[in-house]
Model the fold of this input.
Amino acid sequence: MKTSPASVLRFLLPPTALGLAGLLVWKLHSLDYLPLLQNPAFRPLTLFFSGFLLLLALALPWCLEPAGSPAGLAGDLARFLVMLAPAAAFFLLPDPTQSAKILSDRAWMLQNLTGQTSFMGRKNQEAIAYVQGLLPQLPPGEPVDLDLDVLASLASRPESRALFAEVSFRTRAQYQPSSKEGRWKMARLLMVCCVADTRPIVLEARGSAPEIRENDWVEATGKLGVEDGIPVLLATEAARIDPEEDLFLYGP
Amino acid sequence: MEACALLFLSLVVQGLPFLVAGALFTAVLGGLAPLEAMARKCPRSPFWAALCGIGAGTLIPSCECLALPLVRRFLHKGLPLPAALAYLLASPAVNPICLASTYTAYSFQNPWLMVAYRALGSSAIALVVALALGRLNRGQVLQDRLLAKSDAGHGHDHALHSHGTDCCEDGIGLSVPARGPQWLRALLHGVRELLGDLWSIIPLYVLGSLASALLQSFLPVERMAGIGHAVMIPASMLLSVTLSLCSSADAFVASSFVFAPLGAQLAFLWMGTLVDLKLLAAYHAVLKTRALALLVLLGGGLVYLLARATSGVLG
Done:
């Protein structure tokens, strides 16, 4: 078949662009950006299909031929240029630590949009069953370690508060100050699919939290209670800790 | 710009595997059974065809990204418009995964009611939009390259002839070699179709994601918190279009809109499933601009009316 340089170019554009997209995902994975961008539960799927795109791009020149007609080259060039946009965005990314800060700020901005305090309704029954299973194994007085979303879920329901009224819980979160003495909030970011749907989970806390500043990571221990109709953690201890390795909690 | 780049890459990375999976699933399905024959089995009556599309959406756990390549290929093979559009518009909202996530997100406040409202509302909107667009000529709705096969009686065996000609040109400059065993050529034809689907949809999806990330980064969406209830429904719809969330996750965001009435939260869910910025661009791989505009206007109008009516019932 007679082929022109234009038809060869047109032949090469789709696999090159799609291969670049696959390569970009692997690069993001190797530089630890993927946990910031999407729920890790999707990571195997993402890596599998981006690897598939790469293999497809590499295999095509050996199994297909240029069609011989350069018709549509302009459209293909436009698509190719669009497909370069993610690669360009990659070069604008700050380092993962700074990226985490930006994403956290964005989630808080949206929290202002969605209300002051939010609880996720998920995991309540599982959380109750989990804590009930855990309690007999713990020495008396030992606090139960829970993620903030599970603890907030327990705190928000009267039946789970009553069930665990005498149980001490411990959790780690980011500190959000309040204008009133002895009141503060604990917050974690929760991601379901990707950063676009990230929201903070917030649990009000009462008690002393000395020398802890906004967005510091704090480990707090206390019992669940209610104050002015709002579910709270009545913290008996609160201390600043090193930031958690993973900025996010992940939704179901 | 950094936040914009993060959001943009997040949307691309999140959607990419599902687009590829959808295209691959379609290619494998096409290899196992002739899609033309499957398309011919669909009822010819627009109403029943659209109901079939919605019914298929309830069974197949596919998000919008996964559904698009499948619909595009089936339209290519002659599936009636109402069935394809109803599936495309309803399946992201009525599939089991989406309904389960809606139940979980609203487990604090009438989860079954929200699941029912979401599923029935999305189905009703998809049905009306699919029937309205289905009344038009296929040529007025579908992109020309989809018409080339579906309307031209393209009933030949691809493994039996070379594809160096205009036959089956799907906008990509690739053809299957004339030599080699028949099974290999059939396989390569499938690979070529797979690449054609990806090349048609992914760049448009990337473009839509870029538009969404730019708008989210530079529009002051946080000001929505101060708006009154009177404009809460259109504001929720606009926000939903801008945020471009996956239908499996949007209920978690909607349920956190504690300031908004349930009608506005449902408007967020219905509108986001119907169309958002990333989908708007990607739908262009299937629909012509006018048909797309009609879809947005009619669908948006229905979402608004339904949300107002629901607000009256739910308060």
Summary: Chain A touches chain B through 83 residues (CB under 8 Å). The longest strand of chain A covers residues 230-241.
